[in-house]
Design brief:
With 311 residues, the chain is an alpha/beta fold. It is built from 13 helices and 14 strands. Helix 3 links the parallel strand 2 and strand 3. It starts with a strand and ends with a helix.
Length: 311
């Protein structure tokens, strides 16, 4: 099985489709920068504005405006400048959190688990969606695909989101491991899109035969662009996992960390804040509970053990 980034033909086709839809300015690795300079070393973050990281992996273009509004809301409540810093993959965002290039970030559950173990990334808050701090991995195919389960995609082209994504990479890898398969042995080729919305579009346009995507992003896309998700079909839904959280870098100023946490935990009680959360399809934020991510740790350990046993 050939493991690649999006092949040139698929990349070109997806880029043209995205430009036509005006949803992203470039294909695959897209920057969401709002004109702000990239984050620099830790001392800059301490002296300058509060820097909050977001990523193209989990932020559809249509939803970016709500992160900008949340940025403004937090800045107003803190009485200090707040800057959004974006990166195109989870490794880069975790690197900024480790080095102090950002103070806080919205990250995927998988990179949180890794970052906590590797350098002490701290869990700050968890969003509630439909009353629960949980989400799922959806295995999707084109709406007219005959596939009824992941097993039916043997020998097909499959899209992962990011090598570190829980819902977009680890979960389907775990599903395959339970079948005594690996992505390399099961699929003819794997593509990385670096965006759950890009994976959804790649499936809808039949550029790939299937994909694993974040349930939150699929549901959000279904709300704002139902014509797109109507061209896809969910064939499998994983067990629930701890939702992508808000985290902070180790060593962040304790007082500023507490103030940021208090703002997030109370934002749903403010009419302006509630409107922003509604646009993000979030009910509210609650205090982070690290135990919520134990299932991901167990899954990681099980997959690693199976790899050791493989001939």
């Amino acid at each position: 099985m050939k493991r690649t980034f999006l092949s040139l033909s698929i990349l070109a086709a997806l880029g043209l489709l995205l430009c036509a839809a005006c949803e992203r300015e470039q294909s695959v690795q897209i920057s969401l920068k709002s004109g702000a300079p990239a984050a620099e070393p830790a001392q800059t973050a301490k002296q300058g504005p509060l820097r909050i990281g977001i990523g193209a992996m989990t932020t559809p273009r249509e939803g970016y405006v709500y992160y900008q509004r949340l940025q403004e809301y937090i800045g107003k409540k803190l009485g200090m400048p707040v800057q959004l810093v974006d990166r195109d993959n989870y490794d880069e965002m975790n690197g900024l959190l480790e080095s102090g290039g950002v103070d806080a970030a919205f990250v995927c559950a998988g990179p949180y688990v890794e970052g906590k173990t590797k350098f002490g990334m701290e869990l700050l808050a968890m969003p509630l969606v439909k009353g629960k701090p949980l989400y799922y991995s959806y295995i999707i195919v084109p709406s007219d695909s005959p596939a009824k389960s992941l097993r039916d995609l043997r020998g097909k082209v499959f899209a992962f989101t990011d090598p570190k994504s829980n819902s977009g990479k680890l979960v389907p890898t775990y599903m395959l491991a339970r079948m005594k398969q690996t992505p390399e042995s099961f699929f003819s080729r794997v593509e990385f899109t670096y965006g759950h919305d890009l994976s959804i579009r790649a499936v809808a346009e039949k550029l790939v035969d299937g994909a694993a995507v974040d349930s939150l992003i699929w549901e959000y896309t279904a709300l704002i662009n139902p014509q797109l998700t109507a061209r896809t079909r969910i064939i499998e839904k994983s067990e629930p996992y701890g939702i992508p959280p808000v985290v902070v870098r180790p060593g962040m100023n304790p007082e500023l960390k507490k103030r940021l946490k208090d703002i997030l935990l109370s934002v749903a009680q403010d009419p302006e804040g509630k409107e922003i959360l509604t646009g993000m399809m979030i009910d509210s934020f609650v205090a982070g509970d690290d135990r919520n991510y134990d299932t991901i740790r167990s899954m990681n350990s099980w997959v690693a053990e199976q790899r050791k046993k493989a001939p």
